[in-house]
Amino acid sequence: MDEIEVVVAHAERATVRVGDIFLKMDADQSRLDREIETMRMAPVPTPHILWHQPPVLALAALDGRPLGRLGEPSTASAAAWAAAGGAIRELHDATPPSWQGASVDGLAARLDTECAWLLENAVLPTDLVTRNRRIAETALRPWTPVFMHGDLQVDHVFVEQITDEVTGVLDWSEGAPGDAMYDLATLAIGHPEHLDDILAGYGAGHGADHGADHGADVDRGVIRAWWSYRGLTSARWLLEHGFDPDSPGCEFAVLRAQM
């Protein structure tokens, strides 16, 4: 080991890699405690916890490599994407955590606030925000809570290159009871060409573009609605923390594709 790699760093959290150890620092100790508890409850592979000394959590590196990265074509096989879908199904079939997840009213209020900010600051054209807001609102309906990861970005899922098995899932800080469609949408955002592979592993048929796939309660229209919701509501945070949602294939590209 001859260097330290900064994986991510912003005002709320930072993660650095030292050899095969990841050191995760979080300014909110209760959030870090909940993340540890969520990892212990999860029925899918998670990083091994080496030690925890507030505000630092030490995790062992996972085997394999990320399923992909937002804004880049994925080189993972269809079987690997299907394996990720199977892992999500296993998670969603488990007993949800006991704490409260986000409410529909709370999510709607956040959508209102973030859309107003986007328009007031001329971050995106009015018609782009308006159209995507109408799409996003269809996701804000009653759902049966499942064990939701809550931030299932494509680079949080690691797979073994040869066997295509899921070796682990990272970053459980948003784990809570929630909408199954949100996890599926988060994994597929920016990689819609792999949605069928994910749903094949999850246990859903191809179905129609709207309405539920019988037997698995998968609604592709709601998945697309969460794409709009995530793009609209994450933009301000990304911009304020040094990330660019307008990079090719990222959040703003997803919003434009929804048009």
UniProtKB/TrEMBL annotation:
InterPro entries: AGP_Transferase, Aminoglycoside_PTrfase, Kinase-like_dom_sf. Coiled coil: none annotated. Residues 39-209 form the Aminoglycoside phosphotransferase domain. Pfam families: APH. PANTHER family: AMINOGLYCOSIDE PHOSPHOTRANSFERASE DOMAIN-CONTAINING PROTEIN-RELATED, AMINOGLYCOSIDE PHOSPHOTRANSFERASE-RELATED-RELATED. This is Aminoglycoside phosphotransferase. It comes from Flexivirga endophytica.
